[in-house]
Batch of 3 targets.
Target 1
Amino acid sequence: MKDVARLAGVSTSTVSHVINNDRFVSEAIREKVEAAIQSLNYAPSALARSLKINQTRTIGMLITASSNPFFSELVRGVERSCFERGYSLVLCNTDGDEQRMNRNLETLLQKRVDGLLLLCTETHQPSPEIMRRYPAIPTVMMDWAPFGGEGDLIQDNSLLGGDIATQYLIDKGYTRIACITGPLDKTPARLRVEGYRNAMARAGLTVKEGYEVNADFEFRGGFDAMQALLALREPPQAVFMSNDAMAVGAYQALYQAGLRIPQDMALVGYDDIELARYMTPPLTTIHQPKDELGELAIDVLIHRMAQPDLQQQRLQLTPELVERGSA
């Protein structure tokens, strides 16, 4: 920058104003500076700037990769919100592995990201040793709460969502209603099946033996779980699927069994992934506001970065039923 200033015959602060476009500079001076920049093939150093202002304008995100489209749609919303607010997103996949999670976490902290978004499994906790080595960093946990701490938490109201989905099937006249759950070490999976049980109990309906099948929130898990339900002596009339990815697998299992949706089996999913509206028939599901979740997470994190001493926030988004053709 000093070389550019010397060649253009201006101060380094003027060069900075031209590059950052943050103060008025006359057109003649601007042209001289831009000519010097081009002549010297100068490119500003983001690293140098971040060291000077102690800010990288970068947000790190830890996520467990999955074939479930919910995650890619959520990340897309987060990245869009970062871009609109002048931040870059660094995405790291934990792959459900504790060692990989800790290594990625340390990488993000070494890069001095301004804040962290966490969307990963609850069964692993970040290494206290790593967290001690770095100053406290503003953190927002999205959807799942991986561990206790000072970070803010944004969640879908999964208990209400499971209740709404099951009550919809009850209102349609179904009495033999099963539930394919997600992994029960995940808070949303536990709360969704609890919502299912609450609705069934309120209606005076029995959850028959074998009607709760634990799966993994993935396509294959839904396929295998539906096959287990179809093998029962008295299969259900309807199934609440704890997410849409498993519903896709369930559709395939029903297709292979020669059964029709909803005539032979009614289904309600959860998440409202983009694929849900293009299935045959289109999937009735519980809408999770993924774009709003991503936008809210970024806004809460930026607010936390500006005011780190604020009291911890716990925010909850309200799910809504999207009625289509599968029930």
Target 2
Amino acid sequence: MTWLIWNIRGLNKRYKQKEINQYIKDKHIKLAGLVETKVKEGNAVKIIWDEQVYTVQLLDKQDQFIQCLVTGKQNGMYCYLTVVYGHNDADQRRNLCENIKILAQNTKGPWLIGGVFKGILTIQDKISKVHVTSADIKNLDKLCHDIGIIELPWRGDYFTWTNKHQGVDRVWSRIDGMFGNDMWMMNYSHLSTEYGEPNISDHNPMCINIRQPRRLSKSLFRFFNIWACHLDFEMIIREEWNRNKVAGKMEKIWVKLKWMKRHFRQLNEIEFKGVAEKIDQARQTIYHIQSQM
């Protein structure tokens, strides 16, 4: 069973509706959050689901998000789901962040937040002729730290949106994402986001294959010594260690290490992807050479 979150411009067009229906059928999607910025009426965010598989209770609905409680009828799934569409206007996006902080105060359980945030987390998340500044990453990064959410593991294209222009006017950006709180990670850390091909949209679809929950599963995170040789290594350590968001000493250390893990995973994906496989290949090569001696 798969969940989908996708920004589709022009969803009112019949051919796009046909393609969406086929996509949902082919991918066996049982719950979908669809974002349409040019709806004829109502909210830009829509949630549809298979009533034989899930019960979905609407909790809050505003122009930039929908919050609901999802309960699985077959697989024991139980979580809060927020589907987001951030406006182009920076002031409205700041308002979105404040509203999500309010949601966090009343969300006591596994929480998945996904959609189009229109903000980025790192300088590497955008390529354009206009240089990225710290102000471009401030709002989303601060939101993640303030409410304790982290980006889900993922695979597929790094950039989730492009303006499709040519030459120097081309812009690539990672403005779509899926995030979970601590309880989501404790229960569903084995789930990852798959970014598909844009198809009929200028945004990549985000899919999660929902499997049986795994309680308190061990982290798949592994530290590679080669990271310490990277130019950004000390900066990551320094920035995260200087954050003081938690009162308790041991909890403060735990939070700092958890956020470092997110940065190191991103660093590994960009700079050292496949290093574990390369190490295994080198080890097998050594074994083969030694066996021939």
Target 3
Amino acid sequence: MAQIVGKYEYVSSENFEDYVKSLGKAELADMFLQATPIVEIQQNGDQWVVTVTRKDKTVTNTFKPGEEYDEQLPTQGIVFQSVTTKEGNGFKTVSTSPLAAKDVKVIRVYEFSDTGMVVHLSTNKSDVKAKRTYKRL
């Protein structure tokens, strides 16, 4: 099983622009695409701490698997209502997003390996999927 705790640097995206547009917020696609974040994941007992750093902003989110929490994105103060569960070799986060209609769930599956992290993005209302790849630092 791969180590989850660590620091990861964004490398590339697949179909991410179409994914953001499928949320009905095409105007935000460029903002997300220009971001090249560093993600640091730490574990404190049963809590996980995820810090995302971009050029201009750093946000930290803390969660316990299975419990709802406010997840702040490092983009214009966007806050998701999220629940993250441990799943396989990583995490699955299901969120209600202010970027989408209330019945749309944003789903992110985080898959870890010895060399990095891949985030698979989807929703419960669209077939559009995306992937963001990060290398382990």
